[in-house]
Amino acid sequence: MDLLKIGVITLFMMLWGQLLILRSRIIQTKRSIINRPMKMVCPMNRRQHIDLNLNLFRKLVITDHEEFFRYTRMWPEQFEFLLNLVYPYLEKHSIRKPLSPKVCLGLTLS
What we know:
Blueprint: H1 2-34, H2 47-62, H3 65-72, H4 76-90, H5 101-109
């Protein structure tokens, strides 16, 4: 009878220890999920920055050709020629609204 009690108590202690280990692992995983760093947005994916850049780009093409030259190191006619050459390679088809090839080329050259 004493051996049976000792066996039951030993089994209970082993199961209790396993339960404590399992609880500590669950708490650690919850903490690691909570403390994960937030995903940063790549500057290329910030629409506000790109919209501002596109507006500036449009103004430079239309009004100030010399500033456009300083910005891209080429004249607007050369830019259009280069854009016509690389347009098929920069055009993307995606579920999200992709950047236009003109914006991609402008960001690359700036």
